[in-house]
Every structure is written in structure tokens, then in C-alpha cells.
Amino acid sequence: LWAIDGAALIPSIRKIDKAGIPLLLTDVLPDRKFEKYWKSYSGADNEAEGRLAAQLMVDGFKAKGFELKGDIIAITGIVSQAQVIDRSRGSAEELAKIAPDIKIVGSQPGNWDQGIATNATAGLLTRFGKTIKGIYSHEDAMVAGSIVALERAGMDPSKLAIVSIGCEPSGVSLLKSDKLYA
User: Fold this and answer.
1) How many degrees, rounded to 5, is the angle at CA 140 between CA 104 and CA 93?
2) Which end is more exposed in the chain, N or C (fewer Cβ atoms within 10 Å of the end residue's Cβ)?
3) CA pair distance 51, 56, nearest whole angstrom
4) Could you read off the pLDDT of 94-108 as tens digits, one per residue?
């Protein structure tokens, strides 16, 4: 089963288990308190991805010549999804540990969509202005939207520490153009 929302599929997981069908999950790991209902999970450790993103943000601050303090914003997937919760928790906990003066001052869901992420980023830029030193995106298509919003606001993405998860073709292209740090 490859689902988008790990919480929404719990009733289905229970029915599959009750029917005696072995269940293998990929990509989205539901709350582990329900793990008796599946045989195996194949996919990322989203909390570890969040921690790594925080470490890369710190590296980005250093590479851009910033002190290890300042404001960043986050563009997430759909708020209730397990991977969003885990990526957010991992990054927040790691930043608090390794760079407590780098603060996530605003977070908006981009819902895994470039257009929605563009609008979400634009709203955060309006709210927090040009004090933003970095953006943490939960996915490359959304970070592409964030970069569109930055450019529309007259900001140069290459001057910021911008970190995303995915290494999709859009992300690779943005890395090569120096608009995405990591």
C-alpha cells in the first residue's frame, strides 16, 4: 500500500489485517502504534530527513556568510500527514540542538504543490519581509514554488540558505543554478 495520508488509512489497514492479507507499506509510515497491522515498511525515515535538513541549513548559513542566527520559514506538505509531522519535528529538534538562534518563524503548508507553495511562501515573505535568511521545504516541487515567490518579491534565492528534500529533477536543476543550497 502506498498512501498519501498515513492517518486516513488506519481503518483500511485494520480491514486488510482482519481479512488476513499481509500488508507491505511504502513511502508513508503511519503512526507506529498501529504497526501490528503491517508486515513491513519500505521508505524514508522522515524524522532523520528533517534532522539532516537542519544540519544542511546550518551549513547553508555558514556558506552564505551568515552568523548562526536568523529567521527561516518552512513550507510543508499536508499538515496532518505523518511524514510532515516527522520532518517538521526532526528539523525543529535538530535546529534547537545545533543552532538554537536559527528560528523557524513561520510555516505554511504547500500541500506538495508548486502553485500552493508559491502562494504560501509569498504570504510568509509578506509577513516576515526581507529578514528571512533561509527556507526549508519538505519537497522539491514546493521549493521551486518558493523560489518563484522569492524572485517575484525581488529577492535573490542564491543569497539565501534554501534546503529541500527529494532530489527530484526540479531540485537538481535548482541546485545546478545555485538557487537551492541543498
Assistant:
1) 30
2) N
3) 9
4) 999 999 999 999 999
